């Protein structure tokens, strides 16, 4: 019968049987799936696992620290952090087109991960001659069904922004979440003691804040958006709306300016868009009727606390015709 404890025991046994005494690598994204998959593998084979966290600098406030500090502290995972934020910003310089942003981020991600994976392979060789044979992926049951059910060799779904690895760097996949739905993955994560901020995290796109800045991505704009987003998340959580809201993209219209008045003077700043949506599966969605008082509080806080932002607007479009994200 299905209990979280049984699922963990069963998966740990399977992982041990599959991996034996080989080495294994996993890319952490900051999301639930990779975090839970890696924690299961860690429990099964301990330090045979090395995790790689590519920090592309496009995560929200506190998220990189959650992976680098809290996640490591609670799981004991061996983590290699690559700070690639400058590289991503350079690659994104001058780019406004959404699909081009996605392509650049996917391309840079796989290059950085590839370099890190090669280092892990070399380090394993030098230490005790062991081979890195496996790659962990957080594939869920719905992904398996969607892609026709086959077991793959390493070719991470393009949807998840990791593209393919070169031929000389191929691994056999370890997919401990293949039989699970999202809520089951969260239950397993909680049982394994992972931080709530990771386990209960709402969906967040792989390309991160880059596709929530309409216009070119710059360091300053990322900082502005991060501040606004942190306020929105804090207020929605404090109001107890985390379950009702599927996700709430916060978007900076960096290419738009409007006139405002703050203190003694006129301002010419950027709007922030709030996009709270309710959904079952992200295929369709409706805009969430967030209470007016809460919207007012969020608006006041953002315009008071975030420089450059002088207007807050609410997106009241369902999906379809709107998508959840603006880009
Ligand atoms: P849309 O905007 O198409 O989004 O209604 C549907 C769901 O997918 C997420 N999303 C992405 N996730 N890489 C991802 O990993 C992406 O490029 C991407 N684009 C959208 C979005 O946040 C929503 O949950």
From TrEMBL:
Q: Which UniProt keywords apply?
A: ATP-binding, Glutamine amidotransferase, GMP biosynthesis, Ligase, Nucleotide-binding, Purine biosynthesis
The protein's Enzyme Commission number: 6.3.5.2
Q: Which residues form the GMPS ATP-PPase domain?
A: 2-201
| Reactions mediated catalytically | XMP + L-glutamine + ATP + H2O = GMP + L-glutamate + AMP + diphosphate + 2 H(+)
Instruction: Note the superkingdom of the native organism.
Output: Bacteria
Pathway listed: Purine metabolism; GMP biosynthesis; GMP from XMP (L-Gln route): step 1/1
Q: Where, by residue number, does ATP bind?
A: 29-35
- Listed GO MF terms: GMP synthase (glutamine-hydrolyzing) activity
Q: What does this protein do?
A: Catalyzes the synthesis of GMP from XMP.
> Subunit structure, per the record?
Homodimer.
Q: What is this protein called?
A: GMP synthase [glutamine-hydrolyzing]
Q: What range of the full-length protein does this chain span?
A: 223 to 549 of 549
